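Researcher: I need the complex structure. Ligand is zinc ion. Inputs:
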Amino acid sequence: MISRTELGRVLDGLLKPADIKDYCPNGLQIEGKDRIKRIVTGVTASQRLIDAAIDHDADAIIVHHGYFWKGEGAAITGMKKRRIKALLENDINLFAYHLPIDVHTTLGNNAQLGKLLNFETAKPHPDISPQGIVFEARLTTPISQKTLATQLENVLGKKPLVEGDVDQPIATVAWCTGGGQSFIDKAAEAGFDAFISGEVSEPTIHSAREQQIHYFACGHHATERYGVKALGDFLHEKFGLDTTFIDIDNPA
Ligand SMILES: [Zn+2]
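Model: Output:
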């Protein structure tokens, strides 16, 4: 059991949202009950996740994608009204951390993807993204495009979209989970052999072809499950909190 205030303090202390410029408010987005016993973690605060959290008797939900994005309409209507109504009626707290969960050097989405891929030298690249949302690894033994594609498919449970010269080995890899595809140009400029992102756009493929960089698009959802999951595991281990990661499948 933890109080809402204390949980907020723990999360803010760990994820340091005040240090990061973001497109949404990070931290407590919807206030629920004061005492928190059961926590559900998930990628996005969708209706399905909220419904699953209600079934699970959760007192708080922690997500990577919450609400109130810069540029979105301010009115609480339609889909947004239904989601918020369900949270308020059930007195469930919603905590959301966007970029703070991408950049965290051990629990974050990028750090966790590096860990899943057994990239021992994984660390944020200091220049490609000064915020720290692009990670890099240098491999001691170069691997083939096929090997990395298979590894990604095995850890993420989803076949990646792959572009690049199959005969060129990979010794250096840069990556950015989620919608990080536009960083491919900076990764190519910095001389990386391969770049991995969640989402892909039409220009990304041309960037890969014309700059001779291997490219792997692995899914926004698939690459961003692991940060918030690791955060839940951390809260369980460190504070004995009852945390459950609920994966609401999303093919995008
Ligand atoms: Zn995302």
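Model: Summary of the prediction. The first strand starts at residue 2 and ends at 3.
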